[in-house]
Amino acid sequence: MKLEGLDCSKNELTKINLTGCTTLSRIGCNNNQLQLSDLFEIQSIKNFSYLVLGEQHLLPQTAIMGAELFSEQSIFDGIYTNYSITKDSIPASESDYTVEDGKLTFNAPGKYVVTMTNEAIGYGAKVIVPIEVQPVNIKKYAGTNIKVFPNPTNGQLTMDNRQWTMDNGELRINNVEIFDVYGRKVLEPPLTVLQSYDLTVLQPGIYFVKIETEAGIITKKIIKN
Question: How confident is the model at residue 212 (pLDDT cuts 50, 70, 90)?
Fold first, then answer.
């Protein structure tokens, strides 16, 4: 039996794999939990006769002030992502956040709702995510950055998290993911004790490293030679 149509709306899906669905010509996937990068990938597969990407509602997230958010969702086909932001149910002040090259940084704590769109992704695509932004714990953390080196790299990448704490401890890194400039996750290396990661499988180019820590999410731009 050939699958020609698929309606997977309202299923709280976080991923959709359409590999091998060569006969599929109609698809609806609104009201799930898909990222802009997922919607871009679906749109790029083929010319569907009917396609509705629609609104996606992500689960609530937390972030710390000053951390770059959504770097892996910031640009598609050379077009930067747009953000519509509310704080406590009213439009957020421009002083509450900064958008640069499609990446979002919050300058003030609070409860926000972020709506992301990108002109390179059509069919009603819109991603909505509630975010609670927390201030940095100045007593515990000395900075809001992790040193990533060497950059550019020929394949090995090391993360130095010792500089973060004022009590000579280390900021725990919980997960590391690598995204390309189109927002697609290309690598999720296993965590290591020495915080050294092998990126030799990646093609030369620009990538974004998403580092999940106990204090929030940090994103670093790297170049792979």
Answer: confident
**Can you give the pLDDT at residue 31?**
94
- Indicate if 147-224 has the same CATH topology as 61-134: yes
Burial state string for 171-207 with b = 16 or more CB within 10 A and e = fewer than 16: bebeebbbbbbbbbebbebeeeeebebebeebeeeeb
Assign 167 to helix, strand or coil: coil
Q: Which of 78-82, 118-122, 219-223 has the lowest mean pLDDT?
A: 219-223
Model confidence band, residue 170 (pLDDT cutoffs 50, 70, 90):
low
Q: How far apart are CA 131 and CA 134, in angstroms?
A: 9
Q: Report the CATH architecture of 147-224.
A: Sandwich (2.60)
The residue ranges of every structural domain in the chain are: 5-55, 61-134, 147-224
pLDDT > 70? residue 141: no
CATH T-level topology, domain 61-134: Immunoglobulin-like (2.60.40)
